[in-house]
Structures are given as structure tokens and as C-alpha cells.
Amino acid sequence: MMMGVKNVGNLKCSKNEEAKKNAHCIDVVQEIEQPIVGKVVKNKRVQEGSIHVYFRGNGRFNVFYGDFDKIEFLKRCNKAAELHSTAIEQIVLMDNHVHLHVNTKSLTPFAYNLIHGYSYWYNKKHGLTGKLFESPFNSSIRISDAWIMNSMLYILQNPLSAGICNHPKEYTWSSYHSYFTRSNAKPNPINKHLNIDKTFIYDRFKSLQDFDKAILEESANIKEIREVEGKKWEKIPDAEVIRLANIRLNGRNVFHFSKSEIESFILELRNEIGASYRQISSITHQSWEYVRRVCK
To answer: I want to staple 95 with a disulfide (CB 3.0 to 4.6 A). Which of 52, 147, 238, 286 is the partner?
Structure first.
């Protein structure tokens, strides 16, 4: 979900001198051709700095089907970070996308290592071929502490804005659990498999209460934007749809289903669980239009 990200997205440097002084934008999410005096010039992706990175499943399909997939991604993320001079400052794993905030000296090699390594493992495990993630991956950067804070808070409130939980402590797959360790906290897989650089957050928050307040206020801002736009959101969170779908699969691999089996499964997800066309498409890796036709 990219809704409501402050200053994250297709960012272009302002011509306004005052804006340049306050926050100097030096990157865009991908290379964009710009005509200059009869020539085409490409803005290259910035490779160094404090950067928001975003991977989304190809066709918005799910890229995680269980805890084992997510743990494998974390392990590979940690290895890629060590190999390519990258510190992971925030991360959240959603069902069909990933947000990270990194401080890196080598962005593209880090992202390439992570995306291609995990995709190869995932396709081999599930008997698939082709791209798992959309390309190119998205990244954005501004030299501003305020922007960095907004980026990090946005990442941590993603599960809240998706309707999965009401508080960041309730969502397992977030770097929220790496901060202000609580004596009664359950072991967390991110703490076990991924090194999180806590410097930026600890320099700005002195207590868990202040940290929580900032995340929840950011979540409230996202909710307000939702309501203003009047957008329709699924009633059942993606994670719950996946959980119920896995119960029905009972160990079977949906990618090995025949056409009739996949159509029956689509109807089961729609009629018995109440999953949306988008959710069914993400789980089965079938097109949205195909799912709609089956359900009509």
C-alpha cells in the first residue's frame, strides 16, 4: 500500500529555491526520460543515502504464503545487506509487497541480490517460472530528517492501514518489535533473522510510549485520507484470506491445480470466505478478469 506516503513516490526536484533549501529531492522511483535541448537525458537512481525501497508482487500477486516464506526473505535480506554495505532501518512484510527503509552505499546491487535470490528460491519451491516482483523496484530519497521520519512511520503503520491490526505490536512481520525491548515480549522472527539499525529512532524517541504515539498518529492520517477519497476497501484482511485458504488447501499446491480445480477453488474463496477479486487473483496468480469471469 502506497496510500498516504508523505513525499514518497514519483519525486521530482522543485525549481523553487526555498524548497531546495528545506528538502533537496535527489531521486525518483525509476529512470524517467526528460528532453533537454533536443536530447533525451535519464535521471539515474541514487545509490547512496537513506532510502525508502518498495517491492511489489508482479501483477500484485502474493509473494508470501506462510511464515516459512517470510523467514527465508528475512534471511536473504540480512545476507544481501551484509554483502552490499546496507543497513536496514525499517521493514514490513505484507502479503504482496515489502517496504524497507535502508541506509546504503550500494542500493541496486543490494536490491538485485535480494529480489533475484528470493525469487529463484520461491519459484523453485512452488514450481513456478517468471518474475515474482514488478520491475524496476521503487525507491525514493530526500535529504531531510522530517522526510526520513515520515518514511519510517509509514512503513510501521502499513499493517494498521491495511486493517490487519489496531496496534503495531499486534503484527509480527514488522521492525516495530526491534525497538524498546519489552521483558514480556514474545520472540520475534525479525529480531532473530535480520539486523535492524536502531540509531535514527533511538536518537529521536526516548520511550516506547512516544514511539507508539507517532506511529498511531501517522496511521490516523492515512485513515483520514482513505475516508476523504471514499475508496472501497476489502472487508477481510489479506492475511486472514490466506490463512483460511491454506486451511482449505490442506497442504496441496494451488500452482499444480488443473483448470477445473482452480475454478472450484476460486468459487470457494469467493462464496465461502468472501474474498475480493483482487485477493483471489493475488492468491491464485490468476488475472483479475479471469477471476471475475469465473465468479459471475
So the answer is: 238
Picking from 58, 104, 50, the residue whose alpha carbon sits closest to that of residue 82 is: 104
How many Cα neighbours within 13 Å face the side chain of 195? 11
296 contacts: CB under 8 Å, gap ≥ 6? none
User: What kind of architecture, by CATH, is found in domain 17-228?
Assistant: 2-Layer Sandwich (3.30)
d(CA 154, CA 87): 18
How confident is the model over 82-131, as pLDDT tens digits?
Answer: 999 999 999 999 989 999 999 999 999 999 999 999 999 999 998 888 88
Check if the beta carbon of residue 263 is closer than 8 Å to that of residue 294: yes
Q: Rounded to an integer, what distance in angstroms lies between the CA atom of residue 209 and that of residue 213?
A: 6
Residue type, 12: K
List the domain boundaries for the chain.
17-228, 238-295
- Write down the residue that cell numbers 535541448 correspond to: 37
3-class DSSP state for residue 231?
Answer: coil
What does the pLDDT average to over 264-270?
Answer: 88
Contact 131, 58 (CB under 8 A): yes
* 111 CA to centre of own chain: 13
Give me the chain's average pLDDT, please: 80
